[in-house]
Amino acid sequence: MTDRQYSLEEIRTRLNELDDQLLSLISERRKMSIEVAKSKVETSKPVRDADREQQLLVKLINNGESKYSLDAPYITKLFHTIIEDSVLLQQAYLQNLANPLQSRKPLARVAFLGSKGSYSHLASREFFSRKNTELVELNCDSFRDIASTVESGHADYGVLPIENTSSGSINEVYDLLQHTTLYIVGELTQRIEHCLVATSDIRLEEIKTLYSHPQPHQQCSEFLNHLKGVTLESCASTADAMQKVKQLNRTDVAAIGNASSGKIYGLQPIQGNIANQTENHTRFIVVARKPVEVSQQIPAKTTLIMSTSQEAGSLVECLLILQRYGINMTKLESRPIMGNPWEEMFYVDLQAHLDSQHMQSAIQELTKITKHLKVLGCYPTENVKPTQVKLQ
């Protein structure tokens, strides 16, 4: 008996059938993740159980290798994505219970930088994709406009980029937080994939003018240094840059943006992977007029700003308080205080729930030794750390 030779059409048909089955199973698994979240409401167990996740992944790797001839790295990568999705779904469910008034709103008005297709626009859609709410999208021309739109009540939320793995902190946003009445209610980190886009498949040597937001110019500086005789023009966002290139409709202009977004404006990619770092990510924060209630079962972050006296060791004294209470600091940023020469405001991100006993005690002590202290927000951390498994 010989093995039957399948035609390419038959193979593709079978692959389509398998893909449909995978989608059905993934959908069923997501529904079960919500059932897990419901059970945790009764037991008050935290969303993440590191031991359980590790045992699950080890079992999947062993079964995949022994039964299905699948290699461990492939299984690990696949289920890291599935576990991350499960964690975020459970967090969203518990957050809806903690904030019933917000969860019942059928619409969410969201302000972001630039036009449709900008990185801020893509981040907005990503963040609210698990919120089960319809978006009313409001594009703004500047970070200040985003804050003003939310402060005035014309938008419920604002999405602001705050730091990038390549270009660093976005100082304009940090300075804005110093003077706004808004609270941070969420965060997300998005992979940024910069690409040169143009109206046609032009050669790099033909480009005379390159449009983008100043941040992509910084993040792609090494690539841009190799372009000769090119003028860099700044736009309000990458989406505005792509709109500009489309309107000009010339063969000597291009824009830096997302390849998928470029298609919205009828542009085609001419050079990809142009960022200084291969792993280029931007962290965005979500701001609102009122703080959000965070379930105690969810990993949370607290962001505060503080100013210290000008005496030697003042900042160190503050950091020692955090150390004493076992509070992990993930970010420390200093910015000048406008109108007070040589004085600085410190922005601190902490891996801690604001309502925890340790955090409350730390804030009480910090208040006594700082000139100014304000909590900008406590919010769920949506950066799900991969489950760690030692591969042989």
From TrEMBL:
Residues 303-380 form the ACT domain. GO terms for cellular component: cytoplasm. This is Bifunctional chorismate mutase/prephenate dehydratase. Residues 2-94 form the Chorismate mutase domain. Catalyzes the Claisen rearrangement of chorismate to prephenate and the decarboxylation/dehydration of prephenate to phenylpyruvate. Gene3D superfamilies: 3.30.70.260, Chorismate mutase, Periplasmic binding protein-like II. CDD domains: ACT_CM-PDT, PBP2_Ct-PDT_like. NCBIfam families: CM_P_1, PRK11898.1. The record marks 282 as: Essential for prephenate dehydratase activity. Residues 109-289 form the Prephenate dehydratase domain. Pathway: Amino-acid biosynthesis; L-phenylalanine biosynthesis; phenylpyruvate from prephenate: step 1/1; Metabolic intermediate biosynthesis; prephenate biosynthesis; prephenate from chorismate: step 1/1. PANTHER family: PREPHENATE DEHYDRATASE P PROTEIN, PREPHENATE DEHYDRATASE-RELATED. PROSITE patterns: ACT, CHORISMATE_MUT_2, PREPHENATE_DEHYDR_1, PREPHENATE_DEHYDR_2, PREPHENATE_DEHYDR_3. Keywords: Amino-acid biosynthesis, Aromatic amino acid biosynthesis, Cytoplasm, Isomerase, Lyase, Multifunctional enzyme, Phenylalanine biosynthesis. It comes from Vibrio amylolyticus. GO terms for biological process: chorismate metabolic process; L-phenylalanine biosynthetic process. It catalyses: chorismate = prephenate; prephenate + H(+) = 3-phenylpyruvate + CO2 + H2O. One of its GO terms (molecular function) is chorismate mutase activity. Pfam families: CM_2, PDT. InterPro entries: ACT-like_dom_sf, ACT_dom, Chor_mutase/pphenate_deHydtase, Chorismate_II_sf, CM_dom_sf, CM_II_prokaryot, CM_P_1, Preph_deHydtase. Substrate binds at residues 12, 29, 40, 49, 53, 86, 90. Its EC number is 4.2.1.51, 5.4.99.5. It comes from the Bacteria. It is found in: Cytoplasm.
